[in-house]
Description:
This protein is mostly beta strands. The protein folds into 3 domains: 9-55, no CATH class; 66-195, Sandwich (Immunoglobulin-like), CATH 2.60.40; 203-289, Immunoglobulin-like (Sandwich). Helices cover 4% and strands 49% of the residues. The protein has 2 helices and 23 strands. Strands 7-9-12-11 form a 4-stranded antiparallel beta sheet. The chain has a 4-stranded mixed beta sheet with strand order 8-14-13-10. A hairpin with a 2-residue loop joins strand 2 (16-21) and strand 3 (24-29). The longest helix is centred in the middle third of the chain and has 6 residues, at 139-144. The relative contact order is 0.12.
Amino acid sequence: MNGTNYHCQLVMDGANFKCYRNGELIFDITDAEISGGGTLTLHSYDSHIHFDNVCYTPSSSQPSARISIAPNPIYIYWAFALDPKPMEVVIGDLSGGYSVGDIDPSTILLNDGLQPEGYEIISGYPGFSGEVMAAHFSISDFVDSYPLLYDTTIQVYSISLNLNNGPIINQEGSLTIIGRKSRSVGKEFIIPEAELHLPNSYELTQNFPNPFNPLTEISFSLPRASDVTFEIYNITGQKVATLVNGALEAGEHTVQWDSRDESGNSVASGIYLYRLTAGEFTDTKKMILLK
């Protein structure tokens, strides 16, 4: 550069280049010419900025991300029910030093045309490290983006998004769609009975029976697959037992406690606390052991 020297970053964006200085977009370059050997010729845009021939080496690897879609499989029943379940596209573990904070959510596209109905930033999502961006789509719109579907099919989906400083991520994956869709006879579906009613939110219920001796049952609901811990404490806050410690699928779950500690010894009568932790959700309730 002639005159004042600046250190600028050149980023290829489609057929054009963008020029950044300290992360700030200075201007777009629309008439750049690349000749043999990677020499980039840039032309003057105003009286203060002028580029001579510059050596440009394209990045050897594009940024990438880990992408997960839930639910998977998708049942066509959900797409056409009166109260369809949302579809969640989870994006995280970005490469190249990027984080979910660099994602421009307005640029997220599913199958080259579907935009999210909303999004949220989540910590502790199973299978990911750090924060993820969960974008919510209509299952009905997603299923309708494919041609006729028959019984069980594995479909390829595509995700594209822009990072705030220019790079674009384009990735593909696959998921299973179960059901049948026909334009000639309308939309039909098949679905196992067990999949009809997944919960919409996290919930921890009161144990039953209560008071109890020596056995009680506790139910809880998971709207999505989650890393779960379920622990029992005495009234002084000491941990007595761990009933669950690991990943569970979405749905209704039930655990039993037989009034024994982690060493297998029967515990004394009294008030005990049970605590469910699933992702960022935590709830604690009391129960009474009465011998």
